[in-house]
Design brief:
Its main location: cytoplasm. It is found in: Cytoplasm. Belongs to the ZapB family. It comes from Enterovibrio nigricans DSM 22720. With 80 residues, the protein is mostly helical. Helix content is 98%, strand content 0%. It starts with a helix and ends with a helix.
């Protein structure tokens, strides 16, 4: 009977080892996915920052053009 108990224990230990191995592989896959997502997040953040800078530059250009147009319209009104 003790041989049967030892065999059951051995089977349970082997199942635990197999489960641990599978979990370790899953952890490695998740780490790789996490690193990939981190790199992707960094790229998106950099792209967003570049777009925000371009947007600010375009707004400044727009404001400058509006000011020029107002100035020209003011000069036209002075002539009339």
């Amino acid at each position: 009977m003790s041989l049967e108990i030892l065999e059951q224990l051995e089977a349970k230990i082997q199942m635990a080892i197999d489960t641990i191995s599978l979990l370790q592989m899953e952890i490695e896959e998740l780490k790789e996915t996490n690193e990939s997502l981190g790199r992707e997040s960094d790229a998106v953040r950099e792209n967003r920052d570049a777009l925000e800078q371009e947007n600010a530059r375009l707004k400044a250009d727009h404001d400058a053009w509006q000011q020029r147009i107002r100035s020209l319209l003011g000069k036209i009104e002075e002539v009339e």
